[in-house]
């Protein structure tokens, strides 16, 4: 209810701001005659981006760029996810018509490697459980560029949800012992697969090699001995990262670092004069009416000035993007460009160990990637 109240207040304030501004106009209008197809995106041959570290400005809400890659016969979504800093569910959402375990030789795969930053103070660790991603904002000295680093995370499954809220890192440990909670032992025992009270460090320890304890009792950020589960709802409430990612985060994050855990399936963000909308599927147990919140959220973002322009957002367009929940940002306002002018980067398949024949080599559309 608090979130709904905040959006209503923001919407009312937005109406006042729009009335007061005379040098630009952005509006939302009803038009159900033409539903936006999010697959109609244009790709240009660009230099692939690498890594998960992005510089950004205080006025910038979107980082990275969507990419596409050509699959080999032996590639799976699990392979692509770890290679490109994504989770399994990310790829399933972005490629709904592709078999995740057998994409097929030559199939073009959409890599959702562009992100709208969560609505949260940009400091410390911010975890958006709806997007299954962690965002780390390292401290910077005065005059240095702001940077964000983002990683896929595995989170609590239904019935064992990862809690939201503000907390801090209260402990750090290498090669931790897993003291199995009684509730977890009871579940395994009921299934005929009893667990010991403690699991020592090693390949059978689901915490992996590094763990950060949170101020929320019983909850951790840790590694894993089953990397395929990263980017999925598979844990008992804790947050898991790929082994290489938690090793890096562990080296950077100290006790006292602030941690914000949010649940934001719908994200709006500006990049220059372009407004983007990123939609994820809300959790079944999330009782907020997200479709009814969609329009107030859109209006609350329209206070951003675009001097000398008159721009509109189609309600049907927003609903289409929300309904498809592809998990990557889609432009809903672009100043000076048609809305189909949305570039994605082509990428050499790094799983192919430099096999240049896997380079897409030319202009490719995301609609082709989804259709093949």
Walkthrough of the structure:
This protein is an alpha+beta fold and about 375 residues long. It folds into 2 domains: about 1-85 and about 90-115 and about 270-370, no CATH class; about 125-260, L,D-transpeptidase catalytic domain-like, CATH 2.40.440.10. About 20% of the residues lie in helices and about 25% in strands. Helix 1 (about 1-20) runs parallel beside helix 6 (about 290-300) and helix 2 (about 75-85) packs across helix 3 (about 90-95). The protein is globular. The relative contact order is 0.24.
Shape: globular
Major beta sheet, strand line-up:
2-9-8-7-18-11-14-15-17
Task: Report the helical percentage.
Answer: 10-25%
Mean pLDDT: 79
Note poorly predicted spans: 1-48, 304-309, 336-341, 355-372
Q: What distance separates the N and C termini?
A: 43 Å
Alpha-beta content class: alpha+beta
Sheet having the most strands: 9 strands, mixed
List the total number of helices: 8
Indicate the radius of gyration in whole angstroms.
21 Å
Question: Which percent range describes the beta-strand content?
Answer: 25-35%
Q: How many discrete structural domains? A: 2
Could you give the count of β-strands? 23
